Amino acid sequence: MSGSTSETEGARGEGSDAGGAGGPGFPGGPLQTAVWRLRSRGCWADAAALLESRPGAAPALQRAALLVERCLFTENGWPEAEEALRGAEALAKEDDERGSAACERGHLAYASTVLGVRDRADEARSALGRAAALLHPNSPNRPLLDFRRGLIAEHLSDSPQSAKAAYRRAHAGATTHRKSLLLSFTWRHLAGLALREGELAEARHGFAESLRIREELGYLVGTAPALAALADAEPEPEASRLRAEASRLFHLLDGVPTWLAAQLPPPPPAAA
């Protein structure tokens, strides 16, 4: 993997449930608002606890997605995520529910692989293939699956062209289904590929759009990675300013996401 901030971010921390786990626009009123506020600040266990007593497959899937995202950002909580996912799989009856559960299964296996916990690449590919067979082409959950298949192509199969095609499908689907947070992920990963190809203007635009969306949504836990990614496409002194702001947010959130630590400057003494 490349050591640049943008590419390492893509390989390690991004690609979580970008919109389905309590994001803006998710139906449910005050409960979903509370879940989103906790999730956006990195309080995944607290957000998941709000859903624990809710019956049915949808809350179980949402809870599992939250705990998978915690694994990605903290590199901890694997047993809890596995248990929640098994519970969601047991409750899933409809094809869309079963497909969404398989999508989460594949993503957890992907996270385990790229974070070096255990190589589960074959499981990740198999689960996402199963999700593709179950989810209707027009399902609102299809764009997230396309995005995650892009992650597999880019970071496990080293196939950037296949990844770009998958990210573009995800981007179009996220636009159609108005999944703003997922758009922030697709913008970021398309920008990462553009940077890899030396297309600085395209990369800068994509990273800036990703950051703008996250700031507008209040997705605080994803803002530091977005700032650091944009810094990779900006000249000095703007790059250093962006990294300093990313470092401030990173330390404000007690070092989450964990994989960003080696890519940021230390905090100033007042923030330490």
Would you give the CATH topology?
Answer: Serine Threonine Protein Phosphatase 5, Tetratricopeptide repeat
Quaternary organisation: single chain
Number of strands: 0
Mean pLDDT metric = 90
The end-to-end span amounts to 30 Å
Q: Considering DSSP H and I runs of 4 or more, what fraction of the residues is helical? A: 55-70%
CATH superfamily: Tetratricopeptide repeat domain
Spans of 5+ residues with little confidence (pLDDT < 50)?
A: 1-13, 15-26
Number of self-contained structural domains: 1
Helical/strand content category = mainly alpha
CATH class bucket? Mainly Alpha
Structure overview:
With 272 residues, the protein is mostly helical. The protein has a single domain, classed as Serine Threonine Protein Phosphatase 5, Tetratricopeptide repeat (Alpha Horseshoe), CATH 1.25.40.10. Helices cover 68% and strands 0% of the residues. It has 13 helices and no strands. It has helices at 5-12, 30-40, 44-51, 57-74, 78-91, 95-114, 121-134, 142-156, 160-176, 180-196, 200-217, 223-231, 238-252. Helix 3 (44-51) runs antiparallel to helix 4 and helix 6 (95-114) packs antiparallel against helix 7 (121-134). Residues 1-13 and 15-26 have low confidence and may be disordered.
List strands and helices in order, with pairings:
Layout: H1 5-12, H2 30-40, H3 44-51, H4 57-74, H5 78-91, H6 95-114, H7 121-134, H8 142-156, H9 160-176, H10 180-196, H11 200-217, H12 223-231, H13 238-252
